[in-house]
Amino acid sequence: MKFKNPIEFLKSKKSLRVFIEKQTQAIENSGKALIFTVVGSIILMFAAALAIFFTNVQGEEKVMVPDVVGKNIYTGLFELEQKELYGKIQFRDSETGGDEGKIIAQDPVEGSIVKAYRRITLTVSRGATLDNLPDYTGSNYNDTVNKIELHYAGEVPLIKIKTPIYLTSEKNAGTIIAQYPEPDTAIIDPVEVQFIVSAGNEVHQVTVPEVEGKSISQLLELMKTSKVVFDFTNTYKHEKKFKASCENAGKKLDPYSRVKAELSFKIKEDADKTTSGIFSFNLPEYPFPVPVKLDCLDPEGIETTVIDFTHPGKSITIPYEVKKGSTLSLTVNGEMLKKEVVQ
């Protein structure tokens, strides 16, 4: 850069010096701010570390473990929660009966000082080991279910309870008046128990379902759920498709009343791979409905259940549609009573 005279040159040098001084001052100010920031951060980190240290030294609140041995499992769990403790349940058979559902041991023991929110292991009795099915008749249904679920708890419970059947009875409502299998049945493999339960002395009628337009599989489902005994007959009309009809459809009747129903099966042809008809048998009359099952073993050796339901006895009729050459087996109350090969 060229200057016209010495005065301009001197002014230029003075401006440059002022500029340099300002920049230097700005850098010094920024450095001080940076130092303050770093020092402040260190102080905050130190304070946080002290807080964490003293928190860990102090630890969680400590409580005394209460004595829950001998108490009902629900009472024991409640008392633990009152102390901000939680229970870890494990079951064990006992040598004597009558203590089902009671706590027989705890770990840690009563009086131990532990941190809050710790889990306390509770050993709960499942009662004495049973090899045979007890007699539950006369017991309350809900109490019995709770006892069975407690005693036979596990991934594969030895006793499974079917949906109960309620019947009018002079017994108090909820009282078990019959059971299948019967008492003293050996418990080897998992067994399904059917309870007949009193509904009190008030008669609760059932509605006769409509069967018109239903398929055979739908009729079988109605037999399981409707509490109506269908007396099926074949009209031999040889329809082009299956038809069904019954009397009193939509009317209310006493449970397990008998209802006449007519079935018309389609014309059989040689090319058909399946066959259909009515499986029939005469049973004795039972005081209460008993478990009935019709199984099918097809020509390939595959076994299936056609229907599993309850029946009061005397004449029994069951519609079926299975592969030709299948063997149908009727089991009543655990006893196989009839086999028949159908073509």
TrEMBL record:
All residue ranges annotated as the PASTA domain in the record: 59-126
The keyword Transcription is assigned to this record: no
Tree of life domain: Bacteria
Record Pfam families: PASTA
Swiss-Prot/TrEMBL keywords: Membrane, Transmembrane, Transmembrane helix
Entry-linked CDD domains: PASTA_pknB (cd06577)
UniProt KW DNA-binding keyword: no
Segments passing through the bilayer: 33-54
The protein, known as: Beta-lactam-binding protein with PASTA domain
Taxonomic source organism: Treponema rectale
